[in-house]
Amino acid sequence: MRRLGLANRLTLTLVLVVVAFQAISVLGLMALQQQDQDEWRLPVPVRIAAAAAALDRTPSARRDDLLVALNGDATRFFITDGVPAGYRQRGGALPVLLRSYGAALEGRDVRLLVPEERRRFRPRFQGRRTAVYAISVALEDGQRLVVAPGLGQRRRGVAMAALVFNLLVGLAAAVLVWRTVQRATRDLQVIADASDRFAVDLGAPPMDETGHAEARRVASAFNRMRARIQALMGERMRMLAAAAHDLKTLMTRLRLRVALIEDADQRARADRDVALMATLIEDVLLVARGEERPAVLVPVDVEELLTDLVSERAALGQAVSLGRVEAGRVQGDVVALRRIVENLVENAVVYGGSAEVSFQRDDDRWRLAVVDQGPGLTAAFADRAFEPFARGEASRSRATGGSGLGLSIARSLAQQMGADIRLETTPGGGVTALLLFRIG
């Protein structure tokens, strides 16, 4: 049930409660009526004829006792001088239904009575409609015997009407709750979408503070948090830019001093250390800028890009080869995409000794793979491979690895392009780095 949305969960809960309540009501009503017939029917003609004959033979003072004996929960017998209150005589020809009563009553005047005002609400779920008519039979003294539904039958009709009314009210309440919760969750979805946009692009516009009161408060809090994060990111970038400027000035001085070293071997080592420091600074700045600045996406010819990159690496004497490459274009930033592939190839060469690059379509996405046959990933490192400064081995030597920012930079740049990057174990040993692009 947790997979359903909030609106669907609340609506389903209310519907289940209403259904359970109605089921209990129906069971209770059935228990009260289990001895009764499904609907009221007129007594058989012989019974009415016998009742009329008995009343004719009974003195007026004793007729009340006989009527008490005749009456029951379903049928009521009473004597009146004309048409009883609440009823009216139905005109027209005598219905076929009552011809047998006229024959059984030996020519007595038989009339059909109906309520003066028909009930506006009547349960329709039964196959036949509950009877509401009555029979009026003439007696010898001019009075009339009326046979009508009893109070029990009337109470059952009211109970069924109340049952249907409760059902309709429950359904109306369910629809109202569904609409209300749907509107509330729509505001939550807007907040979630704005959060996703801000996670991808720190320069995304603020959220509209609209909707119900709670949603407006959440949107206002989100905008305050957004402004605070942007301020912190700007402050961090200014700090990094200032530090980078000062470090570059110091490195320029170091290069001048290194040039004065007489020992050629020591001078070469110092030059290499200064170059590594400069590369590390550029990597850190690239990570910071990548989180702040969105990528500019254009169609990129991946086949051409990979061919150039592999040729350059092969010219440097690295064991980098081109596997299966299908012609295709992806939406990406040319500079960022090249930097991602270079970082992945660099890791494969450093840790695995070789790299094979391929690009092909896989169902509904493009799959760029960099495969090596090295030692593979350890379980401890696999979970934090994309964290900044995370490395597969503990040392910080450039001979055994980089600064630990290559995969972090690759992931940051990939996310800006809407791509996904992951590491898998190569069959037979090694690591396969995958860069996945959605098609369309």
Describe this structure in words.
The protein has 3 domains: 45-149, no CATH class; 214-292, Helix Hairpins (Orthogonal Bundle), CATH 1.10.287.130; 298-438, 2-Layer Sandwich (Heat Shock Protein 90). 52% of the residues lie in helices and 16% in strands. The strands form 3 sheets. The protein has a 5-stranded antiparallel beta sheet. It is built from 11 helices and 12 strands. It is rod-shaped and about 150 Å long. The protein is an alpha+beta fold and 440 residues long.
In whole angstroms, how far apart are the ends? Answer: 33 Å
By CATH, the superfamily of the largest domain comes out as: Histidine kinase-like ATPase, C-terminal domain
| Secondary-structure element string | HHHEEHEEEHHHEHEEHEEHHEE
Relative helix content: 40-55%
The largest sheet, given as strand count, sense and whether it forms a barrel, is: 5 strands, antiparallel
Q: For the CA atoms, what is the radius of gyration? A: 45 Å
The total number of structural domains is: 3
Q: Give the integer mean of the pLDDT values.
A: 76
Q: Count the strands?
A: 12
Estimate the strand proportion: 15-25%
Q: Tell me, what is the CATH class of the largest domain?
A: Alpha Beta
Instruction: Please count the helical segments.
Output: 11
- The CATH architecture of the largest domain would be 2-Layer Sandwich
CATH topology of the largest domain: Heat Shock Protein 90
Strand order of the largest sheet: 1-5-4-3-2
Overall geometry: rod-shaped
